[in-house]
Amino acid sequence: MATGAIEGGFGIYLHWPFCAAKCPYCDFNSHVRHQPVDQARFAAALDRELANFAELTPGRTVQSIFLGGGTPSLMDPATVERVLTAISDKWTLDDNVEISMEANPTSVEAERFRGYRAAGVNRVSLGVQSLNDADLKMLGRLHDAATARAAIETARETFPRLSFDLIYARPEQTLDAWAEELRAAIALAADHLSLYQLTIEEGTPFHALFNAGKLKMPEQELGAEFFALTQDVTAEAGMPAYEVSNHARPGAECRHNLVYWRYGDYVGVGPGAHGRLTVGANRLATATERHPETWLQHVEQGGHGMVENMGLSEEEQGDEYLLMGLRLTEGIDLKRYESLAHRGIDPRRLNALIEHGMVEQLGENRVRATRDGFFVLDAVVADLAA
């Protein structure tokens, strides 16, 4: 067995694939439906798929549950309660289980927050994306800045823990404007911010506009300046990065995402969800059917929507651990890498990266990427994995 494969904890990811509108930068598995979604039918299917995964993972204790999407806040509170009850019926929940839910900051959804809290959600992650009305419109968001601020206030009053997302390095954005917006966000935030650099993803409307020369993105060097500024402003405010794009006050890190980055086990249910599970001597990579109604048919007919369920080789496990763990400022455990990959990292490559200031040693068995290393993290990972 790949020892240590469950060291990172055990979580449940549930994907609700529906959105009110598709944002032009988004390549997530999200779908717009112009007729009401049969929530009871989808909830029943999620229950069935959870049961299938529970059979593979008996006796586990769940540290975190994450309702992602799509837009999970389009679910009725009763639907959320049903799926959370399904999880608690099938596994033991940790006394301090984190139950996170992504939500859009529209006024209608903000009114539902108390219902989600009553259902068991104890952490909400708001898709704010910008505090600037013109940029919200450009990003295809359905809310304005005033609505977002009101939703943040409602969330702070309703949930013990709160996070929200912002996108930076937007077209025409200046460093000074981002610094001002980021400081305003920190003043609004309770304890956690997810800050993402705008990237052009293939197949999105932004990709087509960019290729047609109608969307001007910051040059790579300016993008690096945006990243550096983000690290400085958040650190000064007591919300340093604990992962490349995530910032928190000490103790307020997202426990669910830490399961991913610490290479723990997680069940992935719902259309297009991915999972990583240690079952017996195998580390499995799972994925479900992406199209919502096709996934629904598969689950109703066969008990699950899995289209991928494959064992990972020792080398693949080691590579994934590097790819995930080096995103964290806590870095990786070299002994754990050896137990997964069944080989050590080449000390010459490691020492060369240390000498070039890309990686630093934290004690005998732990290393992490430096800030300079974060700028070229893919190259650092590739070098260590070679």
In short:
The protein has 386 residues and is α/β, with parallel strands linked by helices.
Question: Care to describe what's here?
Answer:
With 386 residues, the protein is of the alpha/beta class. It has two domains: 10-259, TIM Barrel (Alpha-Beta Barrel), CATH 3.20.20.70; 324-386, no CATH class. The chain has helices at 39-56, 77-90, 107-119, 133-138, 145-158, 175-188, 205-211, 220-236, 255-261, 292-302, 314-325, 334-341, 347-355, 371-375, 377-385, and strands spanning 10-16, 18-19, 31-32, 61-69, 92-103, 123-129, 161-168, 192-197, 241-243, 246-248, 265-269, 274-279, 282-288, 306-311, 332-333, 359-361, 366-369. The protein has a nine-stranded mixed β-sheet, sandwiched between helices. The chain has a three-stranded antiparallel β-sheet with strand order 12-13-14, with no helix packed on it. Helix 2 links the parallel strand 4 (61-69) and strand 5. The radius of gyration is 21 Å and the shape is globular. The protein starts with 9 loop residues before the first strand and ends with a helix. Residues 1-5 have low confidence and may be disordered.
- Mean pLDDT over the residues: 91
Look at the structure and give the CATH class of the largest domain. Alpha Beta
Q: Please state the CA-atom Rg, rounded to the nearest Å.
A: 21 Å
Q: Indicate the proportion of strand residues.
A: 15-25%
- Give the terminus-to-terminus CA distance: 23 Å
**Helix-and-strand structural type:** alpha/beta
Helical fraction equals 40-55%
Q: What count of structural domains?
A: 2
Q: Briefly note the CATH topology name of the largest domain.
A: TIM Barrel
Name given to the CATH homologous superfamily of the largest domain: Aldolase class I
Under the CATH scheme, the architecture of the largest domain is Alpha-Beta Barrel
What is the overall number of helices? 15
Which regions are unreliable across 5 or more consecutive residues at pLDDT < 50?
1-5
Secondary structure: number of strands = 17
Biggest pleated sheet: 9 strands, mixed
What is the strand arrangement across the widest sheet? 9-10-8-7-6-5-4-1-11
